[in-house]
């Protein structure tokens, strides 16, 4: 499923811009700002409750950018793009599609070959059998969360995935379900943003 093109719009709730922020919010904005001081709109949407912005960033870093994760970041991003497409979240699909492209260039992977597979109901090569099984699990968890059972986990194990890796697959799928609903539920848009940037380490709180 290809998400629909998102039209520029104003967020549905009040947002405090970095220029107008003070106190704790201003400090957090400084921590999460990217090149040129950019604070992504998905983070600014939390501005009325700075503690929820801290929670979002902690979950984001743990699911996607923790050094103890065993799965490669480019594949975790692939799961994020898939989940975002299924949830029709154009914002996250664009952001993390750009991030996936950047990471695959580092890995000497062909972005277009991988990206086209994420539009398929059953993604195939160049994803490995284990990666295809992980994407199938993420799809089912997104579209039919109540339908997940032990057999789905056994299918992942059968490809050689370890339980810790399965947990990573589950957590990145769950994170994007949360992020997608934050974005679509509150009218977050990509206007004015540089896409596809991410931190190099979990202790680096910069989102860009």
From TrEMBL:
<dbReference type="InterPro" id="IPR029032">
    <property type="entry name" value="AhpD-like"/>
</dbReference>
<dbReference type="InterPro" id="IPR010195">
    <property type="entry name" value="Uncharacterised_peroxidase-rel"/>
</dbReference>
<protein>
    <recommendedName>
        <fullName>Carboxymuconolactone decarboxylase-like domain-containing protein</fullName>
    </recommendedName>
</protein>
